[in-house]
Amino acid sequence: MSLKKRCFPLFPALLAAAVSTATLPVSAASCTSGPGWFQSGCNRLHQVWDEGRTEMYVSGYAWHNRWTYTREKVDTFREVAWGGGLGKGFHDEDGDWHGLYAMAFLDSHSDWQPIAGYAFQKIGRIGENGRVGAGYTVFLTSRSDMFGRAPFPGALPLVSVGYRKADLYATYIPGASGAGNVLFMFGKVAF
């Protein structure tokens, strides 16, 4: 078994240990210099990390758009994207959600794909315990089939539906015919 195949399954366990014991390396006091947008963003990240709830992520499904892939090609993909991770989530004064997260899951080629980033969603309430959300995520990831596994940034839309402490999320990875065009779904539970 290759070193890559042995090490990437350990990623979620290492991530759990890191998130549960880590603090942001830079203090919130360092957010006082720079442009206003930088100060605001820096303070929000510290607020999410310091005041946010611990969240557990479980990935589950990656649907490949049947209008952009042949049936034969879809049959070669893994669509059950097992994996998971941890993060911190915070609801701001408007009730909107901000999150910092890291997770790893099996991609379409059965290789581990780590991802870490920030997410934001405007939240609409449905009754006392229900909610829907729409927003975006910005992240760093690494894939075995892109850039020789070198980390690269990305940004995607993010929608959710939730009840009490659980949420179901979905994002769509756009692409061309035979590449991308994947609906990725995962769940989250807040503690």
Q: Assembly type of the shown chains? A: single chain
User: Uncertain runs with pLDDT below 50, 5 residues or more?
Assistant: 6-23
Distance between the termini: 36 Å
CATH topology: Porin
Helix content estimate: 10-25%
CATH class division: Mainly Beta
Beta-strand percent range: over 45%
Question: Which class best fits the helix and strand makeup?
Answer: alpha+beta
How much is the average pLDDT?
86
Shape: globular
- How many domains? The number is 1
Spatial strand arrangement across the major sheet:
1-2-3-4-5-6-7-8
Largest sheet: 8 strands, antiparallel, barrel
How many individual β-strands?
A: 8
CATH architecture assignment name: Beta Barrel
Radius of gyration: 18 Å
Order of helices and strands: HHHEHEEEEEEE
Number of helices: 4
Write the layout of secondary structure elements.
Elements: H1 3-7, H2 11-21, H3 36-51, E1 53-64, H4 71-74, E2 80-91, E3 97-106, E4 112-126, E5 130-141, E6 152-163, E7 166-173, E8 182-190
Antiparallel strand pairs: 1-2, 1-8, 2-3, 3-4, 4-5, 5-6, 6-7, 7-8
Describe the protein's architecture and organization.
The chain has 191 residues and is an alpha+beta fold. The chain has a single domain (3-190), classed as Porin (Beta Barrel), CATH 2.40.160. It has four helices and eight strands, in the order αααβαβββββββ. An eight-stranded antiparallel beta barrel has the order 1-2-3-4-5-6-7-8. Mean pLDDT is 86; it is low at 6-23. The record marks 73 as: Role in lipopolysaccharide recognition. InterPro entries: LipidA_acyl_PagP, OMP/PagP_B-barrel. Transfers a fatty acid residue from the sn-1 position of a phospholipid to the N-linked hydroxyfatty acid chain on the proximal unit of lipid A or its precursors.
